[in-house]
Known about the structure:
24% strand; alpha/beta; elongated; binds nicotinamide-adenine-dinucleotide; 9 helices
Amino acid sequence: MALPLIVMGATGRMGSTITHLASGREDVKIAALVDRENKAKELPYACSLLDVADSAGMAQVLKDFPDATFIDFTAPEASLATARLAAKSGHAAVIGTTGLTENQKKELAELAKQTKLFYSANMSVGINVLLEILPLLTQMLGDGYDMDLVELHHKHKKDAPSGTALRLAECVAEAKGWHLADVANYHREGITGERKQEEIGLQTVRGGDIVGVHTLYFMGPGERIEVTHQAHSRENFAEGALKAAVWLARQKPGNLYSMQDVLKG
Ligand code: NAD
């Protein structure tokens, strides 16, 4: 039976890609497309758009589709509102919005005790495989290798560094036994002095329509390793979100699931 989806942020770059891909699949179907009221005219589909502020309309969708899963790529506070609504109504929710604060992530983990909840700052298979293998690379290279990260995104992106950049940097920091907050350097300018040994530089480039490029540099004596992930299109993230929604429907509440859980089956 096809899994009904409630797409939050349906007119956005990710929301519209997800809706487009979902319409070509048999394992999912669109229950509702939701966005802010002023976005209604932007919807390119022959489908009505529900205003997120229309609480009676939202309640009707939840009643009509008790097995529906939210897919939310919107903005941090909007995604938290979706997660709270899902926890209250018992619906599942897949959240892909980036730029969440630590407190917002903690709240998601709490809400995950009440309903099936999934959060991943990057839904691509490649990035999530990288998150598995980077600790081994970092540990095997040892102390002689400095690590920096550079990320590139399109000019409309609202948060910096990207959620993926932060997750990748956190992953290699943890492999060294460091806390990212203690070692991250987001800005070098002027007479900076030599770099510290316990430091990870994160640099951000914004422009054009770049979907997303992340490069981690491991710079050692006489050699350098560069690990680059290039997202060629948003379909990669959208496919990941749909895969996560279908997977999440089979899980039980209790944990805040991530893409790494999906890949491990
Ligand atoms: P976008 O600005 O194109 O779309 C966001 C949409 O959300 C807009 O249509 C906006 O009107 C809507 N929105 C905002 N507040 C809302 C609310 N309260 N209720 C309903 N809709 C609301 O942005 P985008 O490029 O689609 O990205 C959205 C988010 O997804 C960003 O945080 C981005 O970084 C993240 N993202 C994550 C991944 C991933 O793999 N996890 C991939 C790409 C983008």
